[in-house]
Amino acid sequence: LHQIVSPEPTPRSFRDPARNPDYVIRALAEAAGEILDWGWIATASFDEARRAWVVSSMQARHGGASVPPMTPISMGESLVGRCIQTGQSLRVDALTTQSIRFNIDEDRHGAAGHSFVVIPIRTAAKNYGALAIEIDSKAQYTESDVETLEHLARSTAFALEIMALGQMVGERAMTDLLTG
After folding, report:
1. Its pTM surpasses 0.90
2. CA 3, CA 7: separation in Å to the nearest integer?
3. What strand order describes the sheet that includes 52-60?
4. Of 64, 85, 3, 73, the residue nearest 43 (C-alpha)
């Protein structure tokens, strides 16, 4: 993750298409997948075009995705929505048929008994989304796992802040060069 978002001293680095928030959040999902056992890893972020929180990426290790990318997040009803709203991580040792992970219309029966954890990606100033990990066994994730993921998510959020600030500085420097 550090190699992806480490600032380079050139203004070109801030315009590099590989260095965008979606790419950095996907790198977080990859890093989390290397640390924990998982069946599904998803990220949620705000889609400016739709003006809504959506599942921005979904990876399934075995079988299909639990929800497709671009599925809207049911903010008040879902675990991911509550995580985004409150900024608090949630760990569920065994999902039930009443547990809504992402969207109220998702298939909940197939996820019953799965372990699920969702971690906010945020700083004090901005909310970037959430990381959700699921596996088809009960009580798979520990408090230590949650703390590790929270550290990764905080580091990602700070990296995103640095990228945004670097972009603003670069834009202002370009404006000053043009306007004198």
Report:
1. no
2. 9
3. 52-60, 40-47, 127-135, 115-122, 90-92
4. 73
User: What tens digit of pLDDT does each residue of 97-148 get?
Assistant: 999 999 999 999 999 999 999 999 999 888 999 999 999 999 999 999 999 9
Here the tokens at position 132 are 């959700």
Please name every residue paired with 59 in a beta bridge, in sequence order, or none if there are none: 41
Rounded to 5 degrees, φ, ψ at 116 are -145, 135
Q: How far is residue 141's CA from residue 137's CA, in Å, rounded to a whole number? A: 10
Token pair 């603003």 is at which residue? 168
Chain-centre distance for alpha carbon 102:
13
What SS3 state is found at 23?
helix
